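Entry type: protein chain
Record version: 2
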Amino acid sequence: MNNKIKIIETIFRVLLWLVALHSFIIGLLLIFMPAEFMPFFGYQVWDANFFRAQGGVFHIIMSVVYLWAAYSFTRSSSMVIMTVTAKMIATIFLFLYFFIVQKIWTIIASGAVDFLMGLVVFILYYYYKNVRYKST
């Protein structure tokens, strides 16, 4: 395997680890952050914690998907496709929610960050596949 492919694989793996770390941290914050901090993020204080915890668990589950993609992308593109799909669906949902339902700064910021993560994963994986194909 040539050195260029190895470098791209390493960068891509690190990118997916960072995406996973982001989702894991967001998940923990959703589960454990005190309700008193919610106004800073644009939300009202709400003591019923179930939906925040559910969202946190979902983010932790997705972090496992992103780690799985980091470990398996050289053998299969399925988890990379899942990663990009999840990020794009999240982007659409967050933008629609912001523009139609409620204009909260963290919603539009989350949509932009999810879009950028999905786009960078897509571009880097596309580049990796092209370089790998040309080297065979």
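Comment: The helical segments are 3-32, 50-72, 78-101, 105-134.
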